[in-house]
Write a structure and sequence with these properties.
mainly alpha; 3 helices; 70% helix
């Protein structure tokens, strides 16, 4: 198996970016009074998924990668709960 040179090559990162785009489109229809509440929270959580994958892939040790992978999992659950 070839080593991954960039997080952009990871299918899971690509899907996370697609999720963020979908979340932004979906939350655009949310009530305006939720702009700084639920809408903001869901958007930040969805962006954090791809960010944690990218940061974890750039770390030096498997332990550090697992830490960021766990953070990604938490963000996914937060998005699911909020939607």
């Amino acid at each position: 198996m070839a080593a991954v040179e960039s997080f952009r090559e990871l299918v899971v990162w690509q899907r996370a970016v697609e999720l963020s785009v979908a979340v932004y489109k979906l939350t655009a229809a949310f009530p305006k009074d939720e702009m700084y509440g639920l809408t903001s929270q869901i958007r930040r959580a969805s962006v954090s998924i791809a960010s944690n994958i990218a940061e974890g892939q750039g770390r030096c040790s498997p332990g550090e990668f697992r830490q960021f992978w766990g953070s990604r999992e938490g963000r996914i659950l937060k998005c699911k709960r909020s939607l």
